[in-house]
Amino acid sequence: MTERVALAVATGLLTPDAVAWLALAVTAVVGLFVALLADRGYRRNDQPRMRSLAVGIALLTTGVFVAVAVLASLGVGAGVVLLARGVVTVLGLCAVLYALVSDQ
């Protein structure tokens, strides 16, 4: 196994940027799965709090990935990417907070 890793590093397949994108993509996929489970719970139990939780989890994981991927492909600066990532994260946290404190 270590020979494969050494080969990947030597050929440039395992660059720090590639590892970061892979980690972000895996987080997005797992987060989307969790958000879909929360959405299914919303539909099954008709609980608006679960819908808010689903939206928050989706924004925190998949939303961040989409925002970063789109802005990076447009070639904008790192500051704009970080700002967009921060805004999407805050929106996701607000949705999760609403799900936790709302009385619905």
Describe the protein's topology:
Elements (H helix, E strand, L loop, with lengths): L1 H10 L4 H30 L2 H27 L3 H24 L3
Overview of the structural elements:
By secondary structure, the chain is mostly helical. It has four helices and no strands. The radius of gyration is 17 Å and the shape is elongated. The mean pLDDT is 89.
* Secondary-structure content class: mainly alpha
Number of strands: 0
Major β-sheet, in short?
none
> Which radius of gyration do the C-alpha atoms yield?
17 Å
- Helix amount, in percent? over 70%
Q: Assign an overall shape.
A: elongated
Write a short abstract of this structure.
This protein is 88% helix and 0% strand.
Give a quick set of tags describing it.
104 residues; mainly alpha
